[in-house]
Design brief:
Blueprint (H helix, E strand, L loop, with lengths): L9 H19 L11 H11 L8 H10 L4 H34 L9 H36 L4 H17 L5 H23 L14
Helix pairs in contact: 1-3, 1-7, 2-4, 3-4, 3-5, 3-7, 4-5, 5-6, 5-7, 6-7
C-alpha cells in the first residue's frame, strides 16, 4: 500500500494555489477593451505584468496532481507536461498579441488594433493561445481526476469551477466581465480542491490520527 504524502500548511497551500488566477482576475479589471493610441501604454504594461502571472495559473492543477498521485507516474508526467505547454504557449500569446502589438501602437508604428501589422501578429499568436488553453483544460481535468481519487464526489464542485474557468480563459482572455469571472471561478475551484486534498492527507509536523497508517 502506497503511503499518503504528507502535506505542509493546508490553508497556506490552498491560498498559494488560488492566488495566481485571482491575480489574473484583478488585472483583468484594468484590461483595455480595445487597443488604441490612447490605451496602448496601459495595454503594454498590463501584458508585461501578465507575463509574470498567467503562466503561474498552471501551478494549481500541477501541484494537485503531484500531491495526490505518488503511485501514478504517468499521470504526474502528463500533468507537468500539459502545465508546461500551457505556460509556454500562453506566454507566447501574451508576448505577441499583447506586448508586441501594444508596443507597435505605443510607438506610433501602427495606428490601433485594426492595423495590418497588429492583425498579423495576432494571427500568429492565436494558435498558441488555443493550444495553451487546451493544455490548461487538460491539466485541470487531470487534477480533477486525481483529487476525485482521494476525495470522491466532494471534488465535483471544485472540478466544475476549475474547468469552466480554464475554458473561459480561452474564450475571453482576462477581459472584464467574462474573463475576470472565469479566473475567479478557476481560483475558487482550485482552492476547494486543495482544501479537500489537505483534509484527506496528514500534515507535516502533526501526529497521525488514531487508526491512521503512516
Amino acid at each position: 500500500m502506497v503511503d499518503k504524502p504528507e502535506h505542509p500548511a493546508p490553508r497556506l497551500w490552498a491560498v498559494q494555489i488560488a492566488v495566481p488566477p485571482a491575480a489574473a482576475a484583478v488585472l483583468g479589471l484594468a484590461h483595455p477593451y480595445q487597443l488604441t493610441a490612447a490605451t496602448a501604454r496601459e495595454w503594454l504594461v498590463l501584458h508585461i505584468v501578465l507575463l509574470f502571472v498567467a503562466p503561474l495559473v498552471a501551478l494549481g492543477p500541477v501541484s494537485l496532481c503531484l500531491h495526490t498521485t505518488p503511485d501514478r507516474p504517468i499521470l504526474k508526467w502528463a500533468s507537468v507536461t500539459t502545465g508546461a505547454v500551457y505556460a509556454i504557449c500562453y506566454s507566447t500569446l501574451d508576448v505577441l498579441a499583447g506586448i508586441a502589438t501594444g508596443q507597435l501602437v505605443n510607438r506610433g508604428i501602427a495606428a490601433d488594433g485594426r492595423a495590418p501589422d497588429v492583425l498579423a501578429l495576432q494571427a500568429i499568436a492565436q494558435p498558441f493561445g488555443t493550444i495553451g488553453v487546451g493544455a490548461l483544460v487538460a491539466c485541470t481535468l487531470l487534477a480533477g481526476y486525481a483529487v476525485h481519487r482521494v476525495a470522491g464526489r466532494a471534488a465535483y464542485a471544485g472540478v466544475l469551477l476549475s474547468v469552466v474557468g480554464a475554458w473561459g480563459l480561452g474564450e475571453h482572455h482576462v477581459y472584464w466581465p467574462h474573463g475576470t469571472v472565469s479566473m475567479l471561478c478557476f481560483s475558487t475551484g482550485q482552492w476547494l480542491l486543495a482544501r479537500l486534498v489537505s483534509q484527506s492527507q496528514p500534515v507535516v509536523g502533526q501526529p497521525p490520527r488514531a487508526g491512521e497508517r503512516r
